[in-house]
Amino acid sequence: MADPYARNLVHRGFYHAKTDIRTRIAVVLTGSLDNRGLELIKPISRAFPAGTIIELIGTDEQDAAPGGNVQRIAYLAFVELLDGGVILAGDAVTAKGMQIGTIAGFDDTHMPNHQNTIVRMQARRSGAEMGLAPGDEILIHGIPQPR
To answer: Could you read off the pLDDT of 54-70 as tens digits, one per residue?
Structure first.
């Protein structure tokens, strides 16, 4: 059976509508690396049940995308998903009412412990540098429901 992601058959346009996912920060991270070597998996989406812990990692590499490699990163936070749902490459990520970036893709390095979820940012800043705190909400915006 051929993987539709490996064959480049699936793209964001297949996702007609989906809900937002609310998260709560469990751990604020600090620090950055210029040589992290993340390997983004080819699939553009990951499905998670409520209560899952994922790690958010920022990058200023504007070409970061599923199937690619990411070197320059800043550690953001470990977050608990308050809502189950699907996170999709291209989803907007907001904290403290401001968009901090968009989902670039996913790295499986620490699976099954947690999913590295990469956020493409204009400027690489760690969670500590952004003033994030445990308990703060981060929202991953879905595709609006059609009316």
So the answer is: 999 999 999 999 999 99
Note the residue count of the chain. Answer: 147
Omega prior to 112 cis, within 30 of 0: yes
Of 145, 140, 100, residue with least CA distance to 122:
100
Structural domain count, the chain: 1
The model's pTM: 0.93
Q: Is 105 a member of any domain? A: yes
Residue 127 forms part of a structural domain: yes
Domain membership of residue 34 (yes or no) is: yes
Pull the structure tokens for residue 2.
Answer: 């051929």
Full domain range(s) for residue 83: 27-140
